[in-house]
User: Fold these one by one.
Assistant:
Number 1:
Amino acid sequence: MENTAEKKQKILSCIQPSGIPTLGNYLGALKNWASMADGYDSAFAVADLHSITVRQEPAKLRKQTLEMYALLLSIGLNPEESIIFVQSHVTTHAQLAWILNCYTQFGEMSRMTQFKDKSQTHADNVNVGLFSYPVLMAADILLYQADYVPIGADQKQHLEIARDIANRFNGIYGNVFTIPEPYIGKQGARVMSLQEPTKKMSKSDANVNGFISMLDDKDTIVRKFKKAVTDSEAKVRYAEGKDGVNNLMTIYSCCTGKTLEEIEKEFDGKGYGDFKMAVAQSVIDVLEPVQNKFNDYMKNTDYLKDCAKKGAEMAQRISQRTLDKAMKKVGFMQL
Ligand code: ATP
Ligand code: MG
């Protein structure tokens, strides 16, 4: 028999069902999940607890949670090899988050840029959950003793806080948590909005032309790229101040594997019209197979729910060990 004694390192990552995931989520996070899943002990969650930090319509949230789950399978994650679950099905996340809240300072949370951004976009609902979002995220990661967390660049600050909280807790109580490292891809870690290329592409953007949803059909993808903001230079080159073009070049590079220099050569002497059509087609080529699988999975929601149930059971079992340890360390009475 093969010697399997060598322990694999662990990865965990989450995505909110706050909308259909975008091309940004795919290139910045999901694509890496799929390529890393094999080499690691991996767990992936649909982070519905996180998504209620902004107001959600209950029926829509339920639908989007199942769709997100189906998409995780459609990008190639295998429920037999990775633990794939819905966050609210596992009780330990909210429990550990409470404990960690008491080891997190108000001041450090106040510096989080996502909180600042989201409290502006949702000025009528700046709730405490939105404020302590990074603490729940720390709990998600630390419960599974993750070595690496594949994320987009926007979540780097939250990952650093998770490390700070873990180090602080370990400093008081001994080694309870593994200190996680971010895994941020070299390219596509920050895909920008097609309409405001200085802002990141986001699935909860009110302007649907700003993002490509992973389920957009061909015509929609072409239309959105045609409308994408560029500049007046009409030259495909990667340079400071050309945020719109830089973003399109990055997307094209991620989807085709071509380097930025190769892309500049390919479109030398051509206008933005041709370039945008090529970018749109490269995105269609990447998303179409995922969409086909998604449509198949959605025909069998019983299978999806069965996978989610098994995933939740496994996640509960593994995370409970860490939670029990933390509860014991802080001095909660044991029976
Ligand atoms: P929301 O607007 O609801 O926060 P989101 O698009 O930011 O949605 P999340 O569920 O918060 O999506 O993030 C899921 C993963 O996608 C995270 O790892 C995050 O870093 C990554 N990600 C989000 N937006 C981008 C982007 N524009 N480019 C690259 N990665 C991204
Ligand atoms: Mg986000």
Note: The mean pLDDT is 96.
Number 2:
Amino acid sequence: MLELRNIQAYYGSIQALKDISLNIERGEIITLIGANGAGKSTTLMSVCGIVAPRSGEIIFKGEPIQSRSADQIVAMGICQVPEGRHIFPALSVQENLDLGAFLRTDRGGIKQDMEYVFSLFPILKERRHQPGGTLSGGEQQMLAMSRALMARPELLLLDEPSMGLAPLIIQQIFNIIKKINEEHNTTIFLVEQNANQALRIANRGYVIENGRITLTDAADKLLSNAEVQKAYLGM
Ligand code: ATP
């Protein structure tokens, strides 16, 4: 479904991505794990058209997208939940969700998806008239994920959904990521510093260090890999 071929990306003279190649099959959960500053967010931002790669190719559903604009990429079926959520704090929960569906015209489908996200996160239904900025961190993460789902993406990009959340909420968020993948047939590209939780729900994983992919394997193999355990699982 998605393939990155030899992506190089820079911020000015700083090279953030060095020859990144990876692929995601339809229906998979793939996780990219790595330390602070390794290049995880830059990888996601290059997929969704926010960072333009200097060279390399990004192929989505058979078409090169590395030169397309972010809105064209959303229209093709890729949606990102950025690090730090970035919901609209002054708008209500309902208005945030409506904005997620702004490219769509299928009223029936929008209504159905609204019911689906409320079934995933009943708290958002209770709070739907409340300004987004008054929600807790965990609820804002739920809203950011729901807003992305309202675009009905085929590929959902999640940037550190666990960041800054309490362990119980993190568990809930990861369970729901798995549920979205299984029930909604959404392919998921998950970037995480919380390698343990991410590898538990993923099919496969990639490890990124200093802008380079250094390891890739089935998620259960990475969980039992001694180097991964030492560097990322605190064992
Ligand atoms: P984190 O987990 O801390 O978000 P990350 O793995 O997502 O880290 P990136 O944010 O992709 O890493 O950063 C990769 C490299 O690019 C880092 O060295 C970072 O300092 C640098 N970088 C990121 N954004 C910018 C920017 N806007 N300008 C200059 N350098 C940047």
Note: The chain has ten helices and ten strands.
